[in-house]
Amino acid sequence: MQAEASLTAKGAAKHRAVHQLLEGGRILSDPLAVAMLGEDPDAIVREAEEDPDRRTMRLFIAARSRFAEDRLADAVGRDVRQLVLLGAGLDTFGLRNPHRDKGLSVYEVDHPATQAWKRERIAAAAPAGLPALNFVAVDFEKQSFLDELAKAGFDRHAASFFIWLGVTPYLTREAIVATLAAIARVAAEVVFDYGEPLEAFSGARRAAMEAFQARVAALGEPLISRFWPAEMARLLRETGFARFDDFGPHEMAVYLGAPAPPPAGTPGGHVVHARSGG
Ligand SMILES: C[S@@+](CC[C@H](N)C(=O)[O-])C[C@H]1O[C@@H](n2cnc3c(N)ncnc32)[C@H](O)[C@@H]1O
Question: Is residue 277's pLDDT more than 80?
């Protein structure tokens, strides 16, 4: 198991914080993002402005959360009352939970070291009146998260929603398949993201992807899984998801109402919304 808190979780949290400061949370409004990160706002803005290439990743990270939170709101409208954040990192959704009055329970699954660090950050960022989050420590490569969730009170016979963002690139294919199959076994839907193989990119975009890949490998969290969209569609059908939508850069830009969406088929990060029959 990972001995240290995830540095890529910190990276994603920094992108969400900078998105509030530089873009006013235009895609994802997250009033707790800056406090949860706990870094000097001026310094993180300066750092982001010195490296404009980070903007694409920042907007993708904001978009995937916004999309997931929108799909969750639909599911709550269909009486779903359990949310599981798989590989939650410093995601603040559980603290913001706008569906608390409707009884939405939030379970956060992550490595123990990252969860311990998150508890410290929560205590520092929002010391009073913290909402109850159910923390479940799991290594996706080694354990069945459904068993661990059940111990924390998760009802596998009741409808549930899983948000699994920024995690698949760091897992083996076996762990990804096992996780999807486990979600499909319960009456669940899931929003997750994945990246396309490096060969899908060219020019400056390819160079930026390679630089990012080298950066996170140096942090000890190498990117090991990437998928072509057709391969992901096959994998979803094989693991038990009859219905799914895959939003690439074009579809996501249209979804967000961007004035000039990139052409259909443009490579980049993909966000999938999939539903199993239970
Ligand atoms: C890039 S962070 C994303 C965090 C969060 N979902 C977000 O969007 O900010 C990756 C997360 O996956 C978790 N993770 C990676 N491999 C894992 C594993 N084998 N078992 C459990 N969690 C894992 C890390 O602890 C970290 O929280």
Answer: no
User: Does the beta carbon of 89 lie inside 6 Å of ligand 1?
Assistant: yes
Atom 2 of ligand 1, nearest CA residue: 9
> What's the angle, vertex CA 268, arms to CA 173 and CA 138, rounded to 5?
35
**pLDDT tens string 98-143:** 999 999 999 999 999 999 999 999 988 876 666 778 999 999 889 8
Residue whose token pair is 């895609």 = 27
Q: Choose which residue among 4, 6, 164 to substitute to test ligand 1 binding: the one with the highest number of ligand atoms within 8 A of its C-beta.
A: 6
pLDDT, tens digit (0-9, with 9 covering 90-100), for 240-271? 998 999 999 999 999 999 999 999 999 999 99
Question: Does residue 2 have a pLDDT over 90?
Answer: no
Residues with Cβ < 8 Å from 274, sequence gap 6 or more? Answer: 180, 189, 190, 192, 236, 241, 243, 244, 245
DSSP for residue 199: G
Compute, in angstroms, the gap from residue 110 CA to the centroid of ligand 1: 6
Domains (range + CATH), the chain: 7-276 (3.40.50.150)
pLDDT score at 130: 65
CA–CA separation, 19 and 25 (whole Å): 6
Pocket test for ligand 1, best of 28, 90, 111, 173 (most atoms within 8 A of CB): 111
> CB 220: neighbour CB atoms within 10 A?
12
Structure confidence at residue 152 (pLDDT):
95
Q: How far is the CA of 170 from the centre of ligand 1 (A)?
A: 8
Q: What is the pLDDT of residue 1?
A: 44
